[in-house]
Amino acid sequence: MGMVGADGSVRGVPFAGAVPVFEDRTRDACVVVPGIMGSVLEDTATGRPLWGVDLRMLTGARSGEGPFAALRADTREQGADAETARRAPLTRVRAAGLLARPWWLPVFQGLDPYSKAVEELEKVVLAREAVAPFPYDWRLAVSYNGALLARAARAHLERWRERVAAVPEWRAAGEARPRLLFVAHSMGGLVVRAALEQDPELAADTRAVVTVGTPFLGSAKSVLALNLLHAQARPGRVVRRVQAMAATLPGVHDLLPGYRCLDRGLDVERLTPGHVARFGGDPHLAARSLAEHARHRSSWFALPGHRAIVGEAQPTVQTLEERHTDPSVVEGRYYAFDIRDDGELGRDPATGIPARRDASGDSTVHLPSAQAGAPAPAYVFGQHGALMRHQEVLRQIRRIALERPRGTDLGDGTGHGPGLETPHLGGTLGQPLTLTVTGLDTPAGVSLSVRSATTSHPGHPLTLRRDPDRTDGALSARFTADAPDLYQVTLDTGRHTPLTQLVLVTAPDA
């Protein structure tokens, strides 16, 4: 039915002039929740930055372990949970804001800033104050940060509702009250889930939760991060300090895989606290995390309006295997196991061997973990740490914020596409790095380049060649850095959104 009548009236009301057309905006309040490493941390007492500000703590130009030692969780921080957050929040370390510059950590690799995601949401809300970032101390338990988020999100929603009610143009008759939209990356999705589980009224006030690369079933990479000292014959300075820090952090242990991931040849097991302790972690923190996984397996909490965006086609560690000569060393494997609906392993009917397959992922979170519980995931070719600045991901976030019809696939629908593989422990000055491209038949028309992520220096184009040491037809190129720095690797096929990953090159240890 038309709105404008033959007499120029609009819905029966006399009207002179052109019919106004308004910009499409959402009335809802938005909260952006980063992943692990994604919040700047500082010493509350001194204001000294501990994380996300001074890259020299990683590149080797700064001596001493200073911030790394300060980031280790003490006994009280290790025991902090939701009740702690409600009664006596911790104050030693403060989350000062979202990550504003590229960062990097061994195993977990690169993480890009969250500024683009915030900017895109600000374009589709009624006013910029409708978008609230939620920085948090990612070192601590998901349950603790979930309680803090529940309180912060409720306060943000109430402030925004008061603001909307005070503006006549926004207070449209018949319009529903604003609700919440959460946009969460990686571990941030687990924090949102904890917040909404703890506060059912907040869940009822939530229209949608967008999770981007969230490891609902955990990530095998977290075990590799705890195992750094065992796995390295001569671990470098950064590796030593990161492992010593990670072993104390509840947040890292909350990323442990809860699915069956330990390859035993003819069987596959779930991790136990004993396994985690042998690999370099804390058995008590592991027991708490693995118990949470068991609870979710028995009673899955469905996020309201859940929209999962999932990275695929990237080489991703999915399962683990103990080294035969040293069971304290665990090695990542790029395949998963088929699990039937009854929970049993899928096996080859002739041999009884468990069926292994490469489920791929976003280089950190494998596909089944990121899509768990989501009714209609959207898939994109992208690296984990760069997903929140990936153009297709940002487009999907805008669509969901504006309540567009849900998309189902941002790739080509096949699950096969370009992948980028970089050294997950970074590199040392003077030593060449091997950069690998997967999923492509030929280097023709493909561009691979490396540039400093901290300066404006132009990138170095690299020559891709078929890698004779790979059986999967991968392409590779070599790059030797001329200075310690954080470098951005960019793969552009000309047909897909470019893939990016960060690689840290450090000075040699003294």
UniProtKB/TrEMBL annotation:
Residues 345-370, 451-472 are annotated as: Disordered. InterPro entries: AB_hydrolase_fold, LACT/PDAT_acylTrfase. Gene3D superfamilies: alpha/beta hydrolase. This is Lecithin:cholesterol acyltransferase. It comes from Streptantibioticus silvisoli.
